[in-house]
Amino acid sequence: PDKDLKGVILFRGKSGTGIYYPVTSMMKKQQYLDTHVKYQTKYFYKIAAFDRSNNRSTFNAAPGVVLQKLK
């Protein structure tokens, strides 16, 4: 990993090409539980990295996920 890497920002949107809103900034976490979503709704997530000077990378690809209730 890049020694200048400070963390990543997770963004969520409702379409692959629409507006994305920041959900959380993660410094050392490798996972995040998104609790502000509705079941049976498709969401798209993007991640951008940022360094110690707060320069942000471009977004990664936007995978779509549909949340299901656990049985």
What does this structure look like?
The chain is mainly beta. The chain contains no helices and four strands. It has strands at 5-13, 20-26, 42-51, 64-66. The protein has a four-stranded antiparallel beta sheet with strand order 2-1-3-4, with no helix packed on it. The mean pLDDT is 81.
Secondary-structure map with pairings?
Blueprint: E1 5-13, E2 20-26, E3 42-51, E4 64-66
Antiparallel strand pairs: 1-2, 1-3, 3-4
**Individual helix count:** 0
Q: Which sheet architecture does the biggest sheet show?
A: 4 strands, antiparallel
Proportion of β residues? 35-45%
Spatial strand order of the main sheet: 2-1-3-4
Helix content: under 10%
Shape: globular
**Which series of helices and strands comes N to C?**
EEEE
What structural category arises from helix and sheet content? mainly beta
Q: Compute the gyration radius: what is it?
A: 13 Å
Uncertain runs? none
Mean pLDDT: 81
**Ends distance:** 38 Å
Number of strands: 4
Summarize the structure.
The chain is mainly beta. The protein has strands spanning 5-13, 20-26, 42-51, 64-66.
Task: List the defining traits of the structure above.
globular; mainly beta; four-stranded antiparallel β-sheet; 71 residues; 4 strands; 0% helix
